[in-house]
Amino acid sequence: AKQQGRQRSQLYEDQPSPISSVRAGLESSLHHALERDELYLAYQPQVQVDSRRFAGVEALMRWQHSSLGSIPPAVFIPVLEDTGLIEAFGEWAIRSACRQYQQWLQQGQVPDNSKVSVNLSPRQFRQDNLEQIVRRTLTETGLPAHNLMLEITESMLMTSVEQNAELLSRLRELGIGVAIDDFGTGYSSLAYLKNLPIDVLKIDRMFVKDIVDNADDAAIAHSIINLAHNLGLKVIAEGVEDVEVLEILSLLGCDQYQGYYFARPSNAADIPDLVARCR
Ligand code: C2E
Ligand code: CA
Ligand code: CA
Ligand code: CA
């Protein structure tokens, strides 16, 4: 058996495992995806819970592979992150989202006080020219800073808290908003929140989806909403799939929501009609 084990491990050393060759394949197609125009952004509307007014959109990266079809972000974003390609792709996402939103603003298709939110990966957040990229993109696209929000996750803030707070302050001095994504899924200390210059907490879908039947989830959502409001932050609930969930969020005082109940992430061309439905 020992002998066999050794043979097997030799086999794995000599030949790439199936997983690693799939990854290598994805990686090399990703190198070309941008220039081949296989990437685009989908936009998911964010809506005010009480007034039902349109509040903005979250931009979500999509990859339409020429032969494999649509590849989910959960598969390709980690590859981008590991290879460092995320820096270029992330910059592309910020620029595309800003350009698109500025166009909608100029055509009067979205309200002046609404926002486009763009996700930042851990690696982008540590990139030393992030602030420059954001500033340059706003200048080049003409998008007013108050129409842009960046989403970062809790786990990105766990280390070097002071440095992060400084970076966030500089970003907010540009006039953009900052949201903490997937709030509740990390292990952040609540105490640090009060020292962070942020605007929004997004409650993860994990605590939203069963809110109707699960009293614990409802209690967690309620606590997050109260905490956020006490700190002067707004709250967006993710993953709202039906009206019962929305009604509870309304009772709990949640500010905004996004989810399949109102709309799935949609092609840019479909957004103006979705906005019009909110008025
Ligand atoms: P996320 O930022 O938490 O995005 C929300 C995810 O929830 C999206 O998945 C969205 O399609 C999905 N969603 C929205 N409403 C509902 C709902 O009602 N029910 C359910 N079941 N799901 C809903 P998606 O588009 O597959 O993206 C997955 C993750 O990939 C994102 O999670 C984000 O972490 C990452 N991602 C997507 N685009 C980008 C990007 O441009 N840059 C970076 N760094 N990450 C991105
Ligand atoms: Ca997000
Ligand atoms: Ca999220
Ligand atoms: Ca999530």
Automatic annotation (TrEMBL):
Outline the extent of the EAL domain: 23-279
Q: Name one GO molecular function term.
A: cyclic-guanylate-specific phosphodiesterase activity
| Keyword vocabulary terms for this entry | c-di-GMP
Q: Carries keyword Nuclease?
A: no
Note whether Lyase occurs among the keywords: no
Protein's name in the database: cyclic-guanylate-specific phosphodiesterase
Show the taxonomic lineage. Answer: Bacteria, Pseudomonadati, Pseudomonadota, Gammaproteobacteria, Oceanospirillales
Which residues of the parent protein does this chain contain? 290 to 568 of 568
